[in-house]
Amino acid sequence: MKIFRYTLLALAVLGVIAFLVVGRLREEVPVARAEQGTAVDAVTGTIEVKAEIDLSLKTELNGRVREVPVEPGDTVQEGDVIAILDSADLRFELEQHQIRLEIARERNDLPVREEFELANLREAVEALELSVERGVAARQELDRTRRNLEQLEAAVRGERLSRRESVALLELRVAHLRDELERTYIRTPYDGRVVEQHAFAGDWLWSGDRVARIVSPDRTVEMTLSEEDYFGVEPGQRATLRLASFPGQTFEGEVQTLGLTADPESKTRKVFLSVDESAETLVPGLSGEGVLVKREREGATIIPRRGLIGQNVFVLVDDRVEIRRVTPGFLSLDKAEIREGVEPGDSIVLERQSLLRGGQRVQPRPIK
Questions:
Q1: How far is it, in rounded angstroms, from Cα 335 to Cα 302?
Q2: 51, 67, 50, 48: which is closest to 192 by C-alpha?
Q3: Helix 88-109 / helix 139-183 crossing angle, nearest 10 deg
Q4: Which pLDDT score is estimated for 23?
Q5: Are residues 253 and 171 part of one domain?
Q6: What is the pLDDT of residue 12?
């Protein structure tokens, strides 16, 4: 009897141990409760910060750089000089043509030499006309004198035109040289900051060579969306941005304009956002990701996005797994709306769903 009692006692102890071991071996899964809140229809896209104007200024002339009065980091205003080319040869040529122009203008004011002879010839024509009327001179002589007058008048007009042409051409040449002289001063066409310098004093530049890169202080944030996600995007919708250079920090933006074209190769479209941040923060070239909210719905049942597997949700009922077919609604980056199949307060499994089966008993680990 003692052996029997000892045997029963040992079996009971083993049963307790087995129960405790099995309980401890239950799969532990993270869970979160479904909540009632605001569902958002949001899409994600890549972000790139750009300057509204980003321009590499180039020289229009060949020449040697005489001076560069700016350097990277300097702030410049529209019209400021960022480089000066040597202009000694241009100035010398300009002075020569200015002298020629001054003399040409004075010559233009002088009478033409033939004009004195022209006056005498006109008087001779008038006298011959009276003599022909009186019959004391031959008409042939009058005709010959008139032809001489016409030839001389044409010669005088030609000389006047030649002088005017000379003045006009010299004026054009002087204006052109002044324009070229002005172009030796390379100026910025807008306000901005010098971010790159490509030319230095003493360098020889050919027409089209880069001198400096200027970016404007205004920024535009470009968001790239897939063609499928683009549907429903409108100006005024809000977006939350994360930039790689600012880990753990978010920025708020708003859709300002929509891209007018799509990229057929990448199947994407552009959206342009306004972000109320300083130019020092939004440095051109920064990249990241963004979440754009297209629509919202109040009073919805919300679960963490990772709790939705296709159209299934794993729900714990009395610590046992129940696989439910659900009707998803709006989806955002980390939340999912469930229109049917889940109620607020339900415990939703968040990880390792592929390892679970319906009816399996698990150990829940709540996550807030």
A1: 7
A2: 51
A3: 160
A4: 45
A5: no
A6: 54
- Provide the pLDDT confidence category of residue 137 given band limits of 50, 70 and 90: confident
Structure-block tokens of residue 153 = 């008048």
User: For the residues 159-175, what does the mean pLDDT come to?
Assistant: 95
Tell whether the model's pLDDT for residue 18 goes beyond 50. no
Please name which of 353, 349, 326 lies closest in space to residue 337, comparing C-alpha atoms: 326
| Res. 21: pLDDT tops 60 | no
Q: Which of 102-116, 146-160, 302-316: highest mean pLDDT?
A: 302-316
Residue type, 211: V
Q: Check: CB of residue 222 under 8 Å from CB of residue 52.
A: no
Going by C-alpha positions, the residue among 232, 251, 337 that lies closest to residue 295 is 232
Residue of 170, 173, 167 lying closest to 108 (CA atoms): 167
In this structure, the answer to whether residues 289 and 250 fall within a common structural domain is yes
Helical H segments across the chain, by residue range: 2-24, 88-109, 114-134, 139-183, 227-230
Question: Domain boundary residue among 265, 297, 329?
Answer: 297
Strand-strand pairing, 27-33 and 362-366: parallel
CB 278 within 8 A of CB 193: no
195's tokens: 């971010």
Q: Tell me how many domains the chain contains.
A: 3
Torsion angle defined by CA atoms of residues 194, 198, 203 and 209, in that order, rounded to the nearest 10 degrees: -110
- Domain's final residue, options 270, 297, 324: 297
Domain extent, residue 154, equals 87-183
Assess whether 93 and 172 both reside in one domain: yes
Q: What is the pLDDT of residues 233-260, one digit of tens each?
A: 999 999 999 999 999 899 999 999 999 9
